[in-house]
Amino acid sequence: MTIAVTAGEPAGIGPDLCLALAQLALPCPIVILGSFDLLAERARMLGIDPAIRVYQPGDQRPGVSVLDVPLAAPCVAGRLDPANARHVLAMLDRAIDGALSKEFAAIVTAPVQKSVINDAGVPFTGHTEYLAERTRAKHPVMLLAADNLRVALATTHLPLRAVSDAISASLLDTVLRVLNDDVRRLWGVSRPRIAVCGLNPHAGESGHLGTEDRDVIAPALARARAAGMLVDGPLPADTVFVPRNLSNYDVVLAMYHDQGLPVLKHAGFGHAVNVTLGLPVIRTSVDHGTALDLAGTGRADAGSLEAATRLAMDFAARARPA
User: What CATH number does the domain located at 1-137+279-322 have?
Assistant: First the structure.
């Protein structure tokens, strides 16, 4: 069972985090996809000498190896260069190909810089969307987890003014099905209890504060219940995250990015994990960005990458045939 870890934006903290991962005693093989030369240079900057070997397919010894994906241009810590955008995508492509072929049991991704990939002329809205396109997954769902708190998103990287139009009956039907199925599959929860946030304040106040909750979300939840799912809502988002309410649920479905994730990151920033549901492969990631100002300084916290790697191992072990 080999876990692939992509090193992310080379000018950011991704290489630093991968080197920190190499210093842990992890129970299964970990292969870092990144530039061997860059990792060696960053290790010198950080004053560490991690035990890293060259990746050999089929090697099941515990520990960390590197599958070399060369840089397209020299990299300076903290300084973005669009010339290396193709390097970032090449790491992802190799990890995806390996996961689809079962060479890798799961993919863990260090953070990328979306802006510099777009600056290179490659339309890129995020890992989630890229992975879905490359694996031909029609309905990816973003979920972040911190300990027992899990928050999924009905919509992801959209301007706020576009959210209402995006929330349709078909979208919610699909997201609820994917969420229910993958919380069962990945976490082993036999019948997930799902709390669904309303879109508008107070879940629309019976149509007085917007009609989406009454006319779109509530009927979708009724259909989900008729299909046997345990769903409640639409619930006011300002009270669903009260601890005594959360204790009744296995996962919360928020309608948009900044409705659910500020709460999740407040509760677990630094050890939260981003999970992409609805893919034919297992993928986890960190809960933070590239932190260019911390690259090469030794001050980057690897807690989220470690948590993402350990969760990927748990998922992969659960998915293995008995």
Answer: 3.40.718.10
